[in-house]
Amino acid sequence: MNQGEFGADVSLDPSDPYARRSQTFPRLEPEMMDRVSAFGSEIEVSKGTILFSRGERHTDFFLIKSGSIEILDPSGDGSLRVLAHQGEREFTGELDLFNNRENLVTARAAEDSRLVRLDRSSFLRMMSAEPDIGEIVTRALILRRVGFIRHGQAGVVLIGPGHSADTLRLQRFLTRNGYPHRLIDSDIDPHAGEMVAALKICALSLPVIVPPGKPALQNPATQELADVLGLTEAIDPAEVYDVLVVGAGPAGLAAAVYAASEGLKTIVIEGVAPGGQAGTSSKIENYLGFPTGISGQALAGRAQVQAQKFGARLAISRMAVSVDCSELPYRTVLDDGQKVSAKAIVVATGARYRKPDLPNYERFEGQGIHYAATAMEAQLCQQQEVVVVGGGNSAGQAAMFLSQWVRHLHIVVRGPGLKETMSDYLIQRIEKSHRITLHPYSEISAIDGDRYLTSVTWTNRMTGKCESWPISNIFMMIGAAPNTEWLKGCVKLDKSGFVETGIMAGTVTSGSPFETSAPGIFAVGDVRSGSIKRVASGVGEGSVVVQAIHQYLKQIPRL
What we know:
This protein is of the alpha/beta class. Strands 13, 14, 15, 16, 17, 18 and 29 form a 7-stranded mixed beta sheet that branches. A 5-stranded parallel beta sheet has the order 20-27-21-22-23.
């Protein structure tokens, strides 16, 4: 690897994917090349030929038999920067090979070359039929995307105040969807003003997204941003899927992986990003097989790739708003008016944190009040005092992660302590940390500030004592409200709005404990009444429910 490729000399940082060229840009053995070639066709291209361009969908996979290819990053002024130079026995592509999203880079023949070309369907067949090659390719595609993200390449520029609710909203959406971007904080970056002036927009319009080759987006809605970046997929209303999974948290992604791997035509609908509530967790340490822990986003990202590798489709930034369960196939209506038809539905929409009834609460959401504790949020509160509200595992994981960054952390809980609601390993760490103080029998009673949150007051419910602190960041992790509004009138819900299943729902069609009162509609994970609110439990339910779906599909007429 030449210094200057990928934007920097990374030879001293082994954690950087570009420093691991043998894995990020591997060279296939000759016999592996022969096996790949059997799935495609050999072509010859002349120097300068564009193989694919940024913004295209359904990009093909190219294996280089002779010659070389340049991977290019288009910039806003139309120029092309070389990210990688690939040679004989190497192959093109990154994670968008697994889906129908818009491609992030351009590929050009650097010299007269001989290539093997596989279209997307042939590529997926090869990945399934040749697992040893599939492992090498999958690892490479993941590492290439990680490299883009780490170096802010092949993505967009986000300009805006770093603590603004809208800047954080857009940054969080890009981060959780694994979309490369570079943030320019207009509050502290001296060059931000020049960039805003060059774009000929008003500073009051910040934040702004600058995608290469497209007009700047002034504070776009999340759905608009997803559409412009090509993260969304068009859905054919005439197509009938075997399984529609609504929600891409751990339970939904598990259902998608097992359904797709067992040959069921599967589509997943997700309103924000893969991972659900678990995707906002900085580290999950009690998940089987990861003794050093794994972040919720990393777990979700791997599961997403698995599902897509087996052929599942994933539609991001689309919310289900209603479902017609009066006849088969069931038709689910999305918030953009699209309809998805499916023989069976897996409800995996999870739950969201509850919001306390406090004056000014909505005013400070995203500008001091957070529902996630990842590295992005941690950057906002370095060497400050912060508050975590809640006594569950999510609150405990957030507290332990944030305590590495902040000056001091306060945990506020309404009950007498944490033993009834939090895992023991987290309690022990919290008790031993000199940076964490627990405030039992307490609740937030007031919040205040001007542009951003600056003051937090909590009250001890036993003594009535109030404490006010100059705190700018609250991490709110209390209770759980189910995301089931779209299901009303279709399936039975309990008094709290969670979906009743199994004997509770009176189901008899499949005998599954996950089937709802509507035959062929199943519920898994946190959204299910009586479920255990743990990531591993959700994954288990999502995988097991597929067997019941098979049994159900055998009983219904062929559609």
